[in-house]
Amino acid sequence: MLWPGQDPRAADGTVRTGNCAPDIEAVAMQVFEIDSMAGLRPWFPQWEALAQRCLVPNPFYERGALVPALEEGIVAAGWRILLIVDSDAPDRLAGLVPIERRRFHPLVPQAVWRPVAHDYAFCSVPLIDRERADAAVDALLRWVRANGSVPLDLVDLPVDEPITPLLHAHLRRQHMPRLVHNPRDRAACRPGASAEAYLAGALRKKRRKELARQYRRLGEHGRLECRRLAPGEDVHGWVEQFVALEAAGWKGRNGTAIAARSSHHHLFERLVEDFHAKGRIDICGLFLDDQPVALKCNLVGACEGRTGFAFKIAYDERFERYSPGVQLEIEQIVHMHGPDAAMNWMDSCASSQHFMIDRLWTERRRFSSILVGAPGIRGRSTIKALEGAAALHRIYAGRDSQQGEEQP
Question: Dihedral through CA 204, CA 206, CA 211, CA 215, nearest 10?
């Protein structure tokens, strides 16, 4: 087993180096595959430290979120964690990439490696050490070269953030074929001069008046107030209130609520408790006579910049005519413009063209996926063949006008 501080070149067979070719073994940065919790557990402290240094934040791949998903069986069997380790500093992680083997498209048998995905992960950006980003990305691509028969599909990378141009630069340098596909965006919120100005730019005056009227009408049913989870406060009550509120709505009727499966309940509870202990969770709610009518849970990335990620939201459908979910989102915007804001900006983690959040949050976070193959005829042929599958996907998804591009 590979332990922190151990020379990776001396690790035994319980941790695989991905069939590294000699040229890969010669470089200082190495990639190791972990496929069990026993192999991963010794790296927990280094994982926590990496999350604080990462180039682009992703709380869903932090230890406090991913480990419960693995242990509770939320992630499908067959997962692997790629640890990028510096041979000269083997007690420090330079990268962590959770992956699983999947078909590139349901109609195409070609397998690809993709970042781990599950019902409670809304970002798939690898954790890459910003201080060793060049070497870490180089090592990851060398791992792809050594495993040439199965491409790596890095889905939903943020186009305008450092990891994507860095990846493209290394792909050109290593002459690796790639396909840029599935471009999309989703709503984000970056505070402006004031909450009033932000909302005026997002919503028409008529809509703002209607929402204000609905808020007043909601308040006629009792004492209406907005509350936030305080540092050091017991979070258990908030968790149980959220689970119950969600289960009482359409997700409960469809069997997709957190409460529907004990493993999902355990995951949610463990994740929230971990992030609350670190002071990196923002839970807020609208309460009517001390009973929640809308609740929202946001996560905050560990690295500098305090980027927020919307995680879960639920509302009481008995008050649907008053738009309680929208009212809570407005409270969120007001809070983000205040002196006690928990985050500097926020990713909605919503689907593209979301009917509600797109109207409230005016910024967009742009994404694209990059399918990477090994250099040479075989790798190029594989990427070229999958370009047709990507075109089929665009047609199927109704985005025929969005063009992928193959690059040398």
Answer: 140
Same domain, 159 and 298: no
Answer whether residue 72 is part of any domain. Answer: yes
**Chain centroid, CA 236 distance in Å:** 24
Residues 164 and 201 both lie in one domain: no
Q: Is residue 3 domain-resident?
A: no
Please give the model's pTM, rounded to 2 decimal places. Answer: 0.90
Q: How many domains does the chain have?
A: 2
Domain region containing 326: 191-343
Residue 199: name the closest of 285, 326, 314, 324 by CA: 326
Q: How far apart are CA 328 and CA 318, in angstroms?
A: 16
Q: What is the pLDDT along the chain (408 residues), one digit of tens a residue?
A: 566 666 544 343 334 444 333 344 435 899 999 999 999 999 999 999 999 999 999 999 999 999 999 999 999 999 999 999 998 888 999 999 999 999 988 877 889 999 999 999 999 999 999 999 999 999 999 999 998 889 999 999 999 999 999 999 999 999 999 999 999 999 999 999 999 999 999 999 999 999 999 999 999 999 999 999 999 999 999 999 999 999 999 999 999 999 999 999 999 999 999 999 999 999 999 999 999 999 999 999 999 889 999 999 999 999 999 999 999 999 999 999 999 898 999 999 998 888 889 999 999 999 999 999 999 888 888 888 888 776 766 666 555 444 443 333
Residue 182 in any domain: the answer is: no
Quick one: 12 and 146 in the same domain?
yes
Same domain, 272 and 141: no
Phi and psi at residue 96, to the nearest 5°: -145, 120
